[in-house]
Every structure is written in C-alpha cells, then in structure tokens.
Amino acid sequence: MENNVKFQVRDLDLYYGDFQALKKINMDIMKNQITAFIGPSGCGKSTFLKTINRMNDLIEGVRIDGTIHMDGVNIYKDIDVINLRSRVGMVFQQPNPFPMSIYDNVAYGPRIHGIKKKSQLDEIVEKSLRQAAIWEEVKDKLKKNAQAVSGGQQQRICIARTLAVGPEVILMDEPTSALDPISTLKIEDLAEELKDKYTIIIVTHNMQQASRISDKTAFFLHGEVVEYGETSQIFNNPKEQKTEDYITGRFG
Ligand SMILES: Nc1ncnc2c1ncn2[C@@H]1O[C@H](COP(=O)(O)OP(=O)(O)OP(=O)(O)O)[C@@H](O)[C@H]1O
C-alpha cells in the first residue's frame, strides 16, 4: 500500500436492518489531506463517516461487509474500538461541550487515559486550545462553563477536546452548519492548518466549503460513491453527469 494512504476502503456495504445505506464503497483516503464528502440529504455521507471510527457498531441491526484498513490494519478486526477512537477523533454538527468547565472539557480525554498530573494536564489543555485557535479567547476563563460561550467558540473547544487525546485523524460531520459565517471561516482556516499534522475528513452540505478547503472530494448518491477525485477536478471538470447536475444545483 502506498504509504500516503491513511484509509483503504474496499467493497464496503452497510445495512440498517433490510435497508442498504452504503453500496460497495471503494476509496483510498490520503494522509495529511482534507477529504470532503458531499451529496444530497440521506445519501449516506454520515453513515460512511461513522464507519471510519466504528460509531455504527452501537446501532442495533447494523451489518457491515467489506473492509476498512487504517495504515494497513483492519479496523474491524485487528484493533479495539477504544484504541481506534483515540486515534480517530470526531467533531459533530452541533457543538456538544460537556456541562463542565472549558478546562475540564479539554482535559477529559487525557484524564480518562490516566493522565493525572496537573502540570501535564495544563500543558495539554493549553496546547490543544492553541491548536484549535481559541486559546487567546478563553485563556482567562478556563474555569467558565464551556456551554456558556458562543457556538463558534464551543465548536473550537470541541475540536480542542478532540485534539487533546492526540488523534491522527479528525472526522468532522457538518462542523459548521450551526455556525455563523465568521465562525465558519475560522473553522475552515483551522482545518487547513491542522491538515499538516492530521488526516481530516469532512461531511459538508456547503459546496463552497468543500471546494475552498478540501484536497479530494467524494460525491455520494443513494449510498454509492458516484465520483471521487481531486476537488478541483470534481468541481471544474466532473466526469459524471450526476456530479455535474449536483454541483451546478440541478438537483439536491
Ligand atoms: N440508525 C439508522 N437506522 C436506520 N436507517 C438509518 C439510520 N441512520 C441513517 N439511516 C438511513 O440511511 C440513509 C443514509 O443516512 P445518512 O445519515 O448517512 O445520510 P447523509 O447523507 O449523511 O444525510 P444528511 O446529509 O441528511 O445528514 C438514510 O436513508 C437514512 O434514513
């Protein structure tokens, strides 16, 4: 396997009971890039994203066939879920800080992983908040409840919480859809900065966002990947008529 491939997805099918939500997905997702998933509502973007850190395993009646390898390791067979989730972090559509202080939110994961020393936690909290481009805004109110700041700030705190456990991959499920335009741009800038160190996969309904920040784009329709390639190619010169129809707004 090429060593710049982070995830190798082969013939992935996912069923919710009788309903097939993903159909024969084949995709190589690259390290240190931003990969965007686009497509109309219900086409399977979030379902696919969640298979990457095995969030669907929690749902009753889900069946998954095919394989996903991360750095050559089968994530459904050869790695436990706890380990996988510490390496593959996730940021959700609605900022979801825990009802506790900003500091405790970011220290939460490291504490679960057994880090107790205050100086070490202080260091991780500051570093993570800095990386999430929110340190300057919250450094004087780390004891404040994380739910009592703006939505855009909450989302960056959630990103810091994800970074604090030292993941390699960040999955983002429509991370800016609940945010105002300025906060959205901050998260987009942040994603671009973070890709030097992380592999980022983002589900977005916002096509400008996908074309602004992603390196590769996958267009999903009815559980299938219609087209996957360089973002500039997908947006400027799509090979498939269905992709063109979607990105030009002819259906959606
Ligand atoms: N827990 C579930 N049980 C049964 N069906 C589900 C479940 N979650 C999703 N689905 C179905 O699977 C399909 C894909 O859903 P998914 O949420 O992955 O789509 P999406 O492309 O992310 O949509 P959106 O853009 O609206 O978030 C949809 O038809 C949805 O109704």
TrEMBL record:
GO terms for cellular component: plasma membrane. Part of the ABC transporter complex PstSACB involved in phosphate import. Responsible for energy coupling to the transport system. Its main location: membrane. Residues 7-247 form the ABC transporter domain. InterPro entries: AAA+_ATPase, ABC_transporter-like_ATP-bd, ABC_transporter-like_CS, P-loop_NTPase, PstB-like. This is Phosphate transport system ATP-binding protein. CDD domains: ABC_PstB_phosphate_transporter. Keywords: ATP-binding, Cell membrane, Membrane, Nucleotide-binding, Phosphate transport, Translocase, Transport. It is found in: Cell inner membrane. The keyword Membrane applies. Pfam families: ABC_tran. It comes from Anaerosporobacter mobilis DSM 15930. GO terms for biological process: phosphate ion transmembrane transport. It is a peripheral membrane protein. GO terms for molecular function: ATP binding; ATP hydrolysis activity; phosphate transmembrane transporter activity. NCBIfam families: 3a0107s01c2.
